[in-house]
Structure formats: structure tokens, C-alpha cells
Amino acid sequence: MDGPVFDAMLKTALEEALRQDLEEAPPAPRPSRRHRRRMRLLLDGYDNRETGCGWRCRPARWLAVVVIAALLTGTAAGYALGGGGLFQRMFEESDWAARYGGAADTDQLLGMGGDLNAAAAERNGLRFELLDAVSDGQFAMVCGRLTIQDRYFLEQMESPGDLSFKEWGMLRWGETELPVSCGLSVNSWVNRPELEEGQYYLVFSVSDVALSEGGQYEVRLRDAFCHGGSAELTGDWSMSVTFRPAALRTGTPEQVCRIAGRTLILDRLSISPLALNMELHTPEPGLELEDISSLAVRMEDGTLIIREDCVLGVTQSESNLRLTLEFQMPLNVERVDCVLIGGQPLYLEK
After folding, report:
1. What is the C-alpha separation between 16 and 69, in angstroms, rounded?
2. Distance of CA 153 to the CA centre of its chain
3. Per-residue b/e over 261-272, b at no fewer than 16 CB within 10 Å?
4. What are the DSSP calls for 158-188, one per residue?
5. At 293, is the pLDDT very low, low, confident or very high (cuts 50, 70, 90)?
6. Residue 278's closest CA among 194, 334, 341?
């Protein structure tokens, strides 16, 4: 008997045996809600979401989300606790590394690590543990891993993106008001092979001039719930991080520039590896600026880090303007030549 004929006969026999087994077997159980949900995710794909809301919504609080979302595209497997190594690797694996080129310096992150005063908080079916923290004197980030241990809560979630918290934030120890800019980015296990089902990476960020003095900051999560309100894990998961003092490069006050035909005078300029902060005022009332796209940082070799390569925050009143640039890579601030605004240079103090 040749091969093709034998294969055909074997196929027919196997099909008949399988048909008989199916007829004699009990009916298959109805798929569980979790099974249907996971199959739907596999068929439709899942796009990770980043969350950007807090205790009290302020427009500037959304700034950090874009930066941290880019960092979470890398892998976090094998990271050591604390010391800045986790964030160093995240930045180096970011797509922005090539864009910033020689202007970036990730090694300095190893000297910005914060001390994790408590590694984990666990209660009521949820475990939150800190992995790493860095601060450059005016911008800080803390990364943690969240594990949902309550199986019922997981069953009630339509998708991993359903996870929310009634309150969250990172603020200076003993204070009750969040800083002006505070962000949270959430990334689930769906597209993260190193995470188990029910695990998330959370990155908190904060912009605060008081960071230059160092000190203790508290990271808080309170009352986890599904968006639909079908399940809730009540509780407060709080830990603290101590940051070291850090020096900032500053600009000489009273420098003058013009934007959109308006004269502006520099009150304060400070730049650190992760952020630039500027405050200006105008002697003419009625300040209304709609386009500040000309803002850039010029390096000594002529490299420009333009506004589109950063996350821009703008706050203005009748006579005052505050600008914040959050960099997508840590800059080597010793090699910064000046800040350009409206094409005019604002120089840093030596």
C-alpha cells in the first residue's frame, strides 16, 4: 500500500473515532466569564492604556503621562530594586534614545536613585511593591508592581484596562495637597510576558521645585475598583521614598525676550536632566499666548532639543507665564548652552 492511500485511510478512521467520542461525551460546560473575556482579548487585541487623573484634577497633572508611557514600552524583567537601574534601562530601550543622541546621558540616573523606605504593602486582596525611584531635583519618578490577588475582582473586570483607583498620588511627606504636576501611568500584563495575570506596572511622576532639597515623599493608592463599579477592593496602600538633595542649573534673572510681539522678562529658569522650568512676566497687562512652539534647548555642539521632542506644560495669567518641558531622555545638563524662546537665547549661569 503506497503512502497517499494509507494516509487517506488513516485520516478517515481518525475522523470516525473522533465523531463517536463527541457523540458519547457529556456536553461541554459553558465558558466562564474570564475565559470569554480572555478569548475576546486574544481575538481583538488589546491596547494598553495610560491613566492620568488624580485626587483633584488640574490640567498640568496630565503632563507626565506621555513621558512615562514611552518608558513602559521596554521590558522590566530582571531589574534590581532601587538605585535608578530600572529607569536607566527603560530610557535606554526607549525609541527616544536615538532621537536625542549624544545629548542624553542615562548613566547619571544611577546617582539619582531614591531610598525605598518600604518595599511592599499588602492587604485586602491587593499587593503593591516598589521597584525603583529617581529624582533630579525638580522631577521624580517611582515605579511599582501591583498584583491583584482577589480572584473575584479579576472575574468582574471586562478587561485589564478596567482598573481604577478612587485616589492616588505622590506628595511630600506630611502634606495633603498634590504638587502642581503629578502623573500616573498603568501598564497591564496583557502585553507584558514577564508579568503574571493580574499584575501591573505603575509609574508615578511628580514635578516639584521642593525636590531640590530632597526629603521623603509618600506614594498612595486608595480603593481599587472596576470602571463599571461591579467590584471594589477597599483599602489604603501607602509607602514612602526618600530622595537626596540635587543641584540645578539656573538662568540669570531679568533676561528679556519677545514672544508673539510681547516683551517678557525672565524671573526664574532651572534645568535638570529630566525637566526645564521657566517663569516670566510682562510689564504689559493682558498676556494671551497661543503658540509657544519656538521653545527649545540648545546643546554646546548645536544639537536642538525642540518642543516637539518634549512634553510642554503652559500656565499663564494676565501678566505671568510659566513653562515646563519634561524631556523624553535624561539630558546632560552640563553640556546645555542655552534655552531658546522665540529664537532668542536665555543663558544659564556658569
Report:
1. 53
2. 25
3. ebebebbebbbb
4. SSGGGEEEEEEEEEETT--SPPSEEEEEEEE
5. low
6. 341
